[in-house]
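Project standup — Tuesday

K.O.: blocked on the structure for the chain from last sprint. Re-posting the sequence here as requested.
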Amino acid sequence: SKTGSNLMSGFLYALLPVIAIVTLGHVLSVRNWIPTDSWRAIERLSYVVLFPALILRTLANAPFEEAPWGLAAALIFAQFALGGIGWLARFLPNMPGPAVGSVIQSNVRWNTMIGLSIGSLLFGEEGLALVTIAAAVMIPTANILSVYALIAHADTPHGPKPNPFMALFKNPIVIACIGGLALAGASVTLPRLLDDSLRILGDAALALGLLSAGAGVDLSALKRAGSRTLTWSLVRLLGLPAFAVGFCLLLGVTGTPLVIALICAATPTATSSYILAKELGGDAALSANLIAVETVLAMVTIPILYLLLTL
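H.V.: unblocked you, prediction finished:
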């Protein structure tokens, strides 16, 4: 159908630049054109400044007064459900704590850039607004669950394990979520100078996040840990959209919001998950591999899931 072909082309247009930039990051790292120490500094800058700027602006500008709360609730429930499945990974053999933290993070995060691209291509301004509303609830939920999971499962042999709830409120990304939601709730319009500054920093976050993710992709590790990475990638790409659609139907969400819920949940995990895993003691190599595999597999799974929903 015409809509199906629109989705396919829109998805490819959104995804191909992502793959290209991740590949570029990998080449820069493998060739050592940018040394390892420099990547560490880039990741730190992204974590402390760039990603918080992106999140603060996204949430502050979200159109909350038009929010379909059924869509928002369904996506949050889906994130908790798949996060719970990730938590069960701790009972599997050969799953050290940091790997469990990275799996939970992969299960609850999503690629906002791809969601925005496909949503706006399929449904114009309405799609864009709905994906923004999804971002307003999914980004804070993903960050809170991820930070908690990574810290709770990190290997910290030197000294006591940090308190995940205390660490949450010191986390720059969580602080940005709280600030953005507060601004949106108070209907504060960002001054143009601040809005433009945050937008420029946010654009840098996407680019540097993709490059860092590519730099962290270890292709040899991908071959060694193939089945674990593939299994959890499929759990994420099929499980989150299945839960999202299920909860939407339970809450009476239909039409365009239902399709948007599917698209947001079906995108691959966020590229920022690699940086966060490295910062908070997760399995950074596994996170990078999950990003790489999910990004490739999602080219196939999103159109199939969309066609199944709209048939």
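K.O.: great, moving the ticket to review. The mean pLDDT is 84. Residues 101 and 149 are 5 Å apart (CA to CA).
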